[in-house]
Design a protein that fits this description.
The complex is a heterodimer of chains A (129) and B (286).
Chain A lengths: L2 E6 L5 E2 L4 E9 L6 E12 L5 E10 L4 E9 L7 E2 L3 E11 L5 E8 L6 E2 L11
Parallel strand pairs in A: 2-9, 7-10
Antiparallel strand pairs in A: 1-3, 3-6, 4-5, 4-8, 7-8, 8-9
Chain B lengths: L1 H10 L1 H31 L5 H4 L16 H4 L8 E3 L6 H30 L5 H30 L2 E6 L10 E8 L5 E18 L2 E17 L2 H5 E6 L9 E2 L3 E13 L5 E7 L12
Antiparallel strand pairs in B: 1-2, 2-3, 3-6, 4-5, 4-8, 7-8, 8-9
Classes of the chains: A mainly beta (129), B alpha+beta (286).
Chain lengths: 129, 286
């Protein structure tokens, strides 16, 4: 049975810009994959069509049947993680086997204070009188 | 009228009105084509270098936004930026006026020919009436557009100056306003900073966009004329909110809205999009 895992050094998975996103990835396969890729990316969810942007990629060639590898990325300056009425932006780390179906994902939060920004709704200025 | 009479004698009244109609439509198409080319060139101007370092995910002005520093303002040293509304040049108003006059003249001439043919019990009054009404509709639209452009140009308009071209979340910046109002007709002025999320989604074959305003900050609400004409304020976008963001289908927009009640003229209603930046990284690795 194949398994992939991402373990963060920071248990809270909350980061501020510039802070190190560090941890280790683990894997175990029945048959060795060609390579593994660890990606740091953000995606949008909500009413709008989904947008995705991969910010960092680390490739592990010839990973063998099992193993683990430490990683470290500097947390990007933005965009911040937020959740609004129409749009949410989610940062995540994803480990996947190249030319395979297996993958593992770990969501993280990026903002100036490490907390997800929540956007509410206010009366539009045209309506406010 | 001599040349018109000559042409009418040569080709007949209906043919004359038809030719005139075709010429006017062609002139209109040429005018629109040139306008599109000129507008396209204006829109393709490169942004000032001060803003060009912005990462791709930071919001850029969308099509509906009416003013943007790269097109309507000058960046001065120290990061100050001046925002002005887009006002139609006099040449555009002049062209609209001339075309409106030509179409109105063609409409009058065709309708006059139609009336003459009708009285003479000549069936040519039908196409002449058709051409005349077509010209009258286009002429009326052009006249209304010209009047709106003139009125807009004569109405009071605001100029905003920001102490920084791209404010940073949580950091204060200054905003100065100046209202060009030679007739002293502005009775109330409000300036707001508005944050909105905008999502674009596909439905069947159409693309639709939905917006949600998540933040409104009142910067100024003036009723005294001295305060309306010019003033300044210091504001900051709260650190715990979202900075400008743009991806293919999703966007966070920040705008300064200037609204003014004007006596006996169209009210002021201008939107100036601004770019709000995230706070610089604290980890020392950026």
């Amino acid at each position: 049975m194949n398994s992939l895992g991402i373990v963060l050094d920071n248990d809270t998975a909350r980061f501020t810009p510039g802070e190190a996103v560090a941890g280790r990835v683990t894997w175990a396969f029945d048959a060795p994959p060609e390579a593994l890729e660890l990606r740091l990316f953000w995606r949008t969810e909500g009413k709008g069509d989904e947008d995705v942007s991969v910010v960092e990629t680390v490739r592990i060639d010839g990973p063998g049947l099992s193993g683990e590898r430490a990683f470290e990325f500097p947390a990007p300056e933005g965009p911040y993680s937020f959740s609004g009425k129409l749009i949410s932006l989610i940062w995540a780390l994803e480990l996947l086997a190249v030319s395979g179906k297996e993958s593992a994902r770990q969501d993280i939060v990026l903002s100036s204070d490490g907390a997800e920004i929540v956007l509410g709704t206010v009366t539009a200025p045209e309506e406010a009188e | 009228m001599n040349s018109l009479a000559f042409l009418a004698n040569v080709g007949g009244c209906v043919e004359m009105t038809f030719c005139l109609f075709v010429v006017l439509v062609a002139a209109w198409l040429v005018f629109m084509g040139i306008g599109t080319l000129v507008y396209g060139r204006v829109r393709k101007r490169p942004r000032p270098t001060m803003l060009s370092w912005r990462p791709d995910y930071l919001a850029k002005p969308s099509k509906r936004q009416r003013a943007w520093p790269s097109q309507t303002s000058r960046l001065s040293p120290g990061g100050r930026v001046t925002l002005k509304p887009r006002i139609s040049p006099v040449a555009v108003i002049g062209w609209c006026f001339v075309l409106a006059g030509l179409f109105a003249g063609a409409a009058f001439f065709s309708l006059w020919q139609a009336l003459k043919a009708f009285r003479a019990e000549d069936l040519e009054w039908v196409p002449a009436l058709y051409y005349g009404l077509g010209c009258a509709v286009v002429g009326a639209l052009l006249t209304a557009s010209t009047a709106m452009l003139v009125l807009k140009r004569l109405s009071p308009w605001p100029v905003l100056t920001l102490s920084t071209a791209a404010p940073v979340l949580g950091e204060p910046f200054d905003i100065e306003w100046l209202i060009h109002d030679p007739r002293h007709s502005v009775e109330r002025l409000r300036i707001l900073l508005v944050g909105a999320e905008e999502a674009t989604f596909s439905r069947s074959r159409k693309s639709e966009t939905e917006s949600n305003v998540f933040a409104v900050f009142l910067i100024a609400d003036c009723t005294s004329y001295a305060e309306i004409v010019t003033g300044h304020a210091q504001i900051s976008v709260p650190a715990e909110t979202m900075h400008s963001f743009k991806s293919e289908h999703n966007e966070i927009l920040w705008s300064l809205l200037v609204g003014g009640s004007v006596a006996q003229r169209p009210n002021i209603g201008e939107e100036f999009p601004i770019v709000v930046l995230p706070r610089p990284g604290q980890g020392g690795s950026q």
